[in-house]
Amino acid sequence: xxxxxxxxxxxxxxxxxxxxxxxxxxxxxxxxxxxxxxxxxxxxxxxxxxxxxxxxxxxxxxxxxxxxxxxxxxxxxxxxxxxxxxxxxxxxxxxxxxxxxxxxxxxxxxxxxxxxxxxxxxxxxxxxxxxxxxxxxxxxxxxxxxxxxxxxxxxxxxxxxxxxxxxxxxxxxxxxxxxxxxxxxxxxxxxxxxxxxxxxxxxxxxxxxxxxxxxxxxxxxxxxxxxxxxxxxxxxxxxxxxxxxxxxxxxxxxxxxxxxxxxxxxxxxxxxxxxxxxxxxxxxxxxxxxxxxxxxxxxxxxxxxxxxxxxxxxxxxxxxxxxxxxxxxxxxxxxxxxxxxxxxxxxxxxxxxxxxxxxxxxxxxxxxxxxxxxxxxxxxxxxxxxxxxxxxxxxxxxxxxxxxxxxxxxxxxxxxxxxxxxxxxxxxxxxxxxxxxxxxxxxxxxxxxx
Length: 450
Prior knowledge:
- The chain has helices at residues 55-63, 70-81, 85-101, 152-165, 183-192, 210-216, 230-237, 242-255, 274-283, 304-307, 311-323, 391-397, 399-405, 414-417, 422-425, 430-436, and strands spanning 12-14, 17-19, 25-28, 33-34, 40-44, 49-53, 105-108, 122-126, 169-173, 196-201, 220-224, 260-266, 288-293, 331-332, 363-366, 372-373.
- With 450 residues, the protein is of the alpha/beta class.
C-alpha cells in the first residue's frame, strides 16, 4: 500500500463527495508495473521514489487515466472488487489523495481527449546523459541517470522516422552531445535526411578539429553561458575556469565564421547580470541571445532555494527584454509573461477555452534511452519508448501528450480564468505548476497574483 498522508492533507470532502478545487477527473502521470518477483510498484519520476502497491491500489491507479471522473472510478472499482459503493468511495478517496500528496496524480475538470496535433517543427534528442560538467542547475541530472543509450543504428532509425513524419529540425543535446563518438555521424545522417540540425552544447569540447565538421554540416550551434563574468558562470557550472576556457571556444567559432546562439538560464544568482550578459554575447559575435527561467528539476531541484526566481525577479528580467533588449543589434528572444508588460496589449473579444500549452503539441523530446516526453522541463513524464513504438505512434497516441493537449480553461484556477491575459498565458507554465505541486493554481512566477 502507498503510505497514507495525514488526514489534514487529504482532499476536502462535503457530504461524501470529492471536492478538489472543483475538479473531479483524476489523472496519474505514472502507471503501475509488476516486478519479476510479482510485486506491483509505481515509480514517480518527479520525486525519484518508488511506491509499493497492492492489487486493489494498482487497479485504482490504472483507472486514473483521465477518461473517467471520480464517481465513474468508484462505480468500476466497486463492481470489480465486489464491495459497496460507500466502501469503494472511501478506499478510492484515500488512495487517490495519497497519490496526489506524493505528486503522482493531479485533478482536472475535463476528461482527457485524444487531440490531433500538427507535426512538430522541432524535436530535441538527448543523445547522452554523460557530460564533462556537473552544473548545479542541470535539469537533466547529467552523469546521474542510468539507462543504456540508444545505439548509432537506433538513433538513425529514429531520425528516419522523424524525417518521415515531416519534422523540420532536431536539436542534438545531452548531457554533452560531443561526448558521443558518433556525434558527427549522426549529425551528417540527419542532415542528409533534409533535417536542420542543432548542436546544444556547453562549448568546452569544441576544438580546431571538430569545428571543421560543425561548419561543413552547417550546424545551428547553441552554447550555454550563464554569466558575463567567471563569478556567475563558474559558480553555476561548479567548475572553476570554465568561463575563461569557454571564451576561447567562442572565439574559435567566430574566427571560423560559425554563427551561434548564447543561451542562459536565469536564476536568483545571475538575474541581475542578464543585461551585461546580452552585451557580452554581442561583443563575442553571437548572432542571437536566449534566456529561459530556472526550473527546479533534475539536479536543479537540489538547489532550488539558492536558484529559484521570485515573481519580482521574473518581472525585472521580463521588463528588460520588453524595454531594452530590442535596442541591441543581436537577435533576442522573449521571457516569461512578456505580454503582461506590453502597453499595446488588448484582450481578445472572444473567450479562449483552450488551456493547453506547447507541451506535446508543438514540442517533444527523446531521452538518451529512448523515452519520449512532451516537455523538456518535466522529462520524467515519459512512458512510451522508441525502442518499442515508432515516434509517430507515440506522437499521436501517447496518453501523456493528450493529457496536455486536451487541457481546457476550466482546468485552471478561477483566478486565472478571469485574467485578461488568459488567452496568452493559459494559466501559466504547466511544468512549473506540476513541479510546485499546484497543478491548477496560478504559476508561482506570476507577479500579478504572487
